[in-house]
Design a protein that fits this description.
Oligomer: single chain
Number of helices: 23
Helix content: 55-70%
């Protein structure tokens, strides 16, 4: 979701202090001694207090992750509003990684050469502007039309979809004017604005996390730094959950709540044509980011080094910051949180040209470590699974179990994400408290991956087939068209591209419009302030010929809770492997390469997982569509999916990535055992040689 649960903040600049030996001591002397020697001369105040900076940075990172993750909570709504396929929406969701990846290495290099708090502020302002830009298409586009009538002619909503025998249907419900090149160009411009906004969102987020982490580590007391970073990390992980919670609230509101037509609308949130106020969440998130960015323009470039440890017992401190150990060899989150690029630390005084020259050589040396490569590949598989689930799980739940987008977001934000956070914390505690060795870390990762894989097996069977949709699901291999609709509606001359579904509840058959059900009349009933539309005199419906508006409910909607519980448990055990896998990287490479290894790890995760995975999942979802909406002869949004195929391919992709992670950890375990065996043989040979010499 943009920055992700369990990924932590991004790579810091070269000022970030880690256990890097003499280089670290050198940086400490450069940045700390002047501050300590002139401590009494430094101005004191709120903006010279590192604790206030920690508070501000926690709020900013939480707001940033909320705005980055909000698009994923409303992905199906954006698809319906702008006629996007899942492949296109997946590409849109992944596009904020483009700007991030292209600039992150340079941020690590220029870190100490800029005013870090101000750069954080500028980045946050850009993030806020990107949020406003994401909402802009709502204001420059026409009001949402859930039928082919103009918004001003709502009285014709019902009549347009009714069966009118003796009339001739137009060749297309859309006029030539509405399919003009100008209209198509405007549609492309609206989508282009959102892609631009996502790119700016990624660029704006580049300086926020690395500069903030390094600033805290530079000026906090060394005993307090792990606790502060733990607080920032905990606040950061709340962002995606808040994004889904915000989406749950916003999508209950109608998209054009700011320009409602006279007489209101005849839709409920359960209607498949319903589009929620997706844009409102971006405005709220952008406002929060802008507010959180304001204090950064008042923080100094350097502040007095914090001189005193917090009045907390070391035992309590270690427990509170268990995911941020101070010890290098037991550090479960301290170094990973910082996402070090390491290049500037390896050559702190290089020019830009020298910096670019040294990078390939050090990178090649790092990539030669087999354990590093295998652990990164396992994390690529896990991140691909998480990226696909974060982007499309809400949409999957909507389609598979006939629930609203609001309720789907509520389940993810209130259950799945919090449990994943718990898993990350548990993994960090296990590594720290049990002092796990690399072999033990590998076994923990292997068990976590295996259990996650086993929990996903029942998901293939939790769901049901697509209900009968007249003219569509009776022959999934054929393209739907007028000739496939039942003969009872032939005299009606129905428009094939109209969409106003009704449900014959007695036969559990759905019709794409009242016309296709042969309905000639309608009635509107109001109860408890809500309108319920019924269509009457339907020649294709048995009994009294009356059907309610809206799609048929799923026969297995009651299975949504077991499904989400299993999914959440799987996410929890997968998250337990987060910290141990970092330990394998930190202990699997040479000491001088650790910083670069962590930095390259996150670079590879973005390029190989977070960028392509949403597109891969979206493309797989598109292949399960059985009825596409058409606009000017092109496919837009999918109206109906083959639910069995959708479930098998979506869960199958997840299963594939989980299996890949399991295989990688198994290979790591085999390599470690081989290394231990070789070390034991060498020790035995050396011991025998010593005995012979004696």
């Amino acid at each position: 979701m943009g920055p992700r649960i369990g990924e932590g903040p991004q790579m810091p600049d070269k000022d970030t202090k880690t256990t890097m030996g003499t280089e670290d001591m050198h940086e400490s002397k450069v940045s700390m001694e002047p501050l300590d020697s002139h401590h009494d001369e430094q101005p004191q105040g709120l903006f010279h207090n590192i604790k206030f900076f920690v508070l501000c940075h926690s709020l900013l990172q939480m707001a940033q992750l909320m705005i980055s993750g909000y698009l994923k909570s409303s992905i199906s709504t954006v698809e319906k509003r702008f006629g996007l396929s899942s492949q296109t929406s997946g590409l849109l969701a992944a596009f904020n990684e483009v700007g991030n990846v292209s600039l992150i290495l340079f941020v690590s290099y220029f870190g100490s050469r800029v005013h870090r708090p101000r750069m954080i502020g500028y980045g946050a302002v850009l993030v806020a502007l990107a949020g406003l830009l994401m909402a802009l298409p709502h204001f420059i586009s026409e009001p949402y039309r859930y039928d082919h009538n103009s918004p001003e002619n709502r009285s014709q909503d019902f009549e347009a979809s009714l069966c009118l025998p003796g009339t001739v249907a137009p060749a297309s419900a859309l006029s030539n004017d509405s399919c003009s090149s100008r209209t198509e160009a405007k549609h492309l411009s609206l989508v282009g604005i959102m892609f631009l906004a996502q790119t700016l969102l990624g660029i704006g987020g580049v300086p926020i996390q690395p500069f903030g982490i390094s600033y805290i580590d530079d000026f906090a007391h060394h005993s307090n730094s792990p606790l502060y970073l733990g607080i920032v990390f905990a606040a950061t992980t709340m962002g995606p959950g808040m994004a889904y919670g915000l989406g749950s609230v916003m999508l209950r509101l109608y998209v054009d709540i700011d320009r409602m037509p006279e007489g209101g609308i005849n839709l409920t949130s359960k209607d498949p044509r319903w589009v929620g106020a997706w844009w409102l969440g971006f405005l709220i998130s952008a406002g929060l980011v802008a507010l959180a960015a304001t204090p950064y323009f008042f923080f100094p470039r350097e502040m007095p080094k914090e001189r005193h440890e917090l009045h907390i017992r070391r035992k309590v401190l270690a427990g509170a910051a268990s995911i941020s150990s101070k010890d290098e060899e037991l550090s479960s989150q301290h170094e990973p949180l910082k996402k070090e690029a390491g290049l500037a630390q390896i050559a702190p005084d290089l020019t830009v040209v020298q910096f670019m020259k040294v990078f390939p050589r050090v990178l090649l040396r790092t990539l030669r470590h087999p354990i590093f490569l295998l652990v990164v590949l396992s994390q690529v598989c896990t991140s691909s699974m998480v990226a696909g689930m974060a982007t499309f799980l809400a949409k999957f739940l909507e389609r598979q179990f006939s629930i609203t987008a609001s309720f789907a977001n509520l389940l993810l934000g209130g259950l799945t994400i919090p449990l994943a956070i718990v898993g990350i914390v548990v993994g960090g505690v296990l590594v720290k408290r049990l002092h796990l060795t690399p072999m033990q870390c590998t076994i923990l990762c292997l068990l976590g991956s295996l259990l996650c894989l086993l929990l996903s097996l029942p998901l293939f069977f939790i769901g049901c087939s697509t209900h009968h949709i007249a003219g569509i699901t009776q022959d999934l291999g054929a393209q739907p068209g007028p000739s496939l609709f039942p003969g009872c509606a032939e005299p009606c001359s129905c428009q094939s591209d109209d969409f106003n579904p009704v449900c014959d509840t007695s036969a559990h058959v759905e019709y794409t419009t009242p016309c296709h059900a042969g309905c000639t009349g309608h009635v509107v009933q109001e109860a408890l302030g809500k309108r319920q539309v019924f269509y009457t005199n339907c020649s294709c419906v048995a009994g009294d010929g009356t059907v309610p508006a809206g799609s048929c409910d799923s026969a297995c909607s009651h299975l949504v809770l077991p499904f989400i519980l299993l999914t959440s448990l799987g996410a929890t055990v997968a998250s337990v492997t987060h910290t141990p896998s970092f330990m394998l990287i930190l202990r699997g490479v040479k000491k001088e390469d650790k910083a670069l290894a962590v930095g390259m790890q996150f670079m590879l995760l973005r390029v190989l997982a977070w960028m392509p995975s949403p597109v891969i999942h979206g493309s797989a979802i598109d292949t399960t569509c059985v009825y596409w909406a058409l606009s000017c002869g092109r496919r837009t949004v999918c109206r109906y999916y083959d639910h069995d195929l959708l479930r098998n391919r979506f869960i199958g992709l997840q299963f594939f990535f989980k299996s890949g992670s399991l295989v990688c950890f198994a290979l790591v375990l085999a390599i470690l055992r081989q290394q231990n065996k070789e070390a034991s043989v060498k020790a035995t040979v050396k011991s025998s040689e010593l005995q012979q010499q004696l």
